Amino acid sequence: MDILLQQIVNGLTLGSIYALVALGYTMVYGILGLINFAHGEVVMVGALSSLTVIRPLAASGLPGPVVMLIGLAFAALVCMALGFSIERVAYRPLRNAPRLAPLITAIGVSIVLQQLAMLIWGRSYHSVPELLPNDPHDFFGASITEVQIVIIVVAAATMAGLMLLVNRTRLGRAMRATAENPAIAGLMGVDANRVISMTFVIGSALAALAGVLISANYGIAHYHMGFILGLKAFTAAVLGGIGNLAGAMVGGILLGIIEALGAGYIGDLTGGVLGSSYQDVFAFFVLIVVLIFRPSGLMGEKVAERA
Amino acid sequence: MPNALRKPWVGIALIAAVLVVAPLAVGASLGNAWVRVLDFAALYVMLALGLNIVVGFAGLLDLGYIAFYAVGAYLYALLCSPHFGIHWPVWAVLPLGALVAGIFGVLLGAPTLRLRGDYLAIVTLGFGEIIRIFLNNLNTPVNITNGPQGIARIDPITLFGQPLSRPLEFLGVGFSGVMLYYYLFVVLALGIVFVGIRLQDSRIGRAWVAIREDEVAAKACGINTRNVKLLAFAMGASFGGISGGLFAGFQEFVSPESFSLLESVMVLCMVVLGGMGHIPGVILGGLLLTVLPEIFRQGAGPLQQALFGTVVLDPEALRMLLFGLALIAVMLYRPAGLWPEPRHRSEYKQ
What is the DSSP letter of B63? Predict the structure, then answer.
């Protein structure tokens, strides 16, 4: 029982982060019908750039949470600029090109970001200074650390804020209209290009937050952390129904829990044949199963086939 | 210009002469390391031609193509090495590798072919990663793949009783092992080119192009889209399987590291950069992307040393960086590739 609850707590933490990243995929997909392959790398840039600020500040003796906020603000600025330029350079010129073209530029962008990150921050694994107290608290027999609590709360609050933004504000209405039909939205006076840019900027800010949180969770950051994280977050988005905001959140949390439970129990279930080193396989497995049996995801609407 | 030069066989003879003399000239002037690069160029051309069937002809974006290469390579490694003490004849294992890889292709294709282009890309990417994770971890509890250490001391490829890894004296000319492999790879690559060209002009090839252009219309014309797409996957995969087996025999060592996502992307780039669906273009892409990075790898360090007095940027990272930039630039400015197929070019112009 303890293990079960413990794995659920761990899964919830990881899942909240997946959900934040998945929102970035799903927002872009909802509006452009494009998989922003480079999104995972934006998360990585967020994590590493926050670290650049956090390191010296943490040594200066400022209180941990303040340092973390400053790091987050810096990372968010960097990532927002990055997201904006990625869209401008790699996607906007190809908006009417065959579907394969933006996908390939996206792969190009993610290679470029990864290599730039390696040149800037080096190949090594960076340890992240402990900014929040990491003492375990007892939670019905499972232990939960303050970092985990912060991650879950911050992620939940951010997602609530995003829902408000999309459903209650002018910009959100413009985003929904563009997703529905860009041409008609344009006729109604929505500047589609601006909306698309804003979508990338918001998604990248969420990515920066996810990057800061995940590096705080694992205490480690490196230049190739983005790829697998991005892939899992994409899986989460598909699981929930891509293009659907609530779906991305549910999918993220679900995937986190599936993964944590899978990693916790796979050894027992298979009699030790498969170990927890297969953790990464779960996400792909879930992805393939969802795509085969329910391609529109758990909460997605039935989408028409587009070749 | 004399009339004889316009005849196609003159061109063919010229190409053949260049192909025959190339390793000897390169070996004499630049050393055997560069002949090795040529060997790899031939291997990658085979791989790229295989992927070209899937991506170029049928228009299915496969980001996990290297998995089939891995299947072929590991099959060869398991059946021709002291790892299990099995030493099957090489020329039985290579076709078997093609067959097994083809089966894997169908296994991957069957559930995913209903998916739209970009979903397919992600699923194939996931499949490639799954294969790699399994190769990395299948050393416990039963040691099958020997994990991250990989399998070493694999039997070299033999031809007429001559192991290609040993040098050979023929007609007074000394051929080193890498040169012998070069000739084998070039002959096989030409074979694959031939198969590719015949496929392209066949009923199946036209069906693939029809699916690429418009799947619904193709279906309406009576093409069994599911079977034809599966066939594309299986054919592409089996080419990958053969190349994988050759790779294992050539290297005499395999490890999961050789089959990362980056390799898939690299092969995809050869196809895209050269010109999707256009065989000469794909060959050009394969050659460029094997030889140029190698020149770069050797040249970037000393060049920086000369310019700045020290190596400012890691040549390896720089190579990948340029690679990514090239992908973006080609898509933005020459979306149909460097040497596109005429029909495809018109499609991209819209």
Answer: S
